[in-house]
Design brief:
It holds the Pfam family zf-CGNR. With 194 residues, this protein is mainly α. The chain has one domain: Jann2411-like domain (Jann2411-like fold), CATH 1.10.3300.10. Helices cover 49% and strands 10% of the residues. The strands form two sheets. Strands 1-3-2 form a three-stranded antiparallel β-sheet, with helices on one face. Strands 4-5 form a two-stranded antiparallel ribbon. Strand 2 and strand 3 form a beta hairpin. Helix 3 crosses helix 4 and helix 4 crosses helix 5. The longest helix is centred in the middle third of the chain and has 21 residues.
């Protein structure tokens, strides 16, 4: 269940919410930093769904579900890169809209909060949960803090905890330094080849 609360009662925007953690867990299913690809096959995707919690242990995953998960992940990564300053790609926005139409949620309103519940179970419900988490972040005003690292070999999804939301790398000491070194080498090479 994804619960949507007002920004005034949701804690510090510098601390990632469970919604941010779910989106990041999903986009970081890629083989990153020596980890294994969690969307390598239907069984690895099913295991991720059960371990992470968007689906119960009885979930069945088809090859079509796996392909859809990879497509949703790539669309989200494109948007998260735009949060870190890359150009927004219309095709990513279109894919997210299409996923929202295919995997709807229903609002459940209570006395003090509201929740977005998937209308389906299984992998389709998990996709709806991820999209509901993104919607919750947007309503809280923290969606732009969920980013993907601009260092191409990295691409790790991260939560920008900086006050001015200016972080473009998951870690300035490693990825930021790598990018600065590459830029320096490119300038030096250009200067030496007039």
């Amino acid at each position: 269940m994804t619960t949507v609360t007002s920004a005034a009662t949701s804690g510090s925007p510098l601390t990632p919410s469970p919604a941010a953690e779910l989106v990041l867990a999903f986009v970081n299913t890629r083989a990153l930093r020596g980890e294994r690809e969690r969307l390598a096959d239907t069984e690895s995707f099913r295991a991720w769904l059960v371990t992470t919690g968007p689906a119960d242990s009885g979930v069945r995953v088809t090859a079509a579900d796996l392909a859809a998960a990879r497509e949703l992940r790539e669309a989200l990564i494109g948007v998260l890169l735009s949060h870190a300053g890359a150009p927004v790609r219309d095709e990513d926005i279109d894919r997210l809209r299409r996923f929202g139409e295919l995997h709807p949620v229903r609002p459940v309103v209570g006395a003090f909060d509201a929740a977005l519940h998937p209308t389906a179970g299984g992998a389709a419900g998990a996709f709806a949960r991820v999209l509901a988490a993104a919607a919750e972040l947007a309503m809280r005003g923290t969606w732009s803090r969920v980013k993907a690292c601009r260092n191409p070999p990295c691409g790790l999804g991260y939560y920008d905890r900086s006050r001015n939301q200016a972080a473009v790398y998951c870690d300035a000491r490693t990825c930021g330094a790598q990018m600065a070194t590459r830029a320096y080498r490119a300038r030096t090479k250009a200067d030496s080849n007039p």
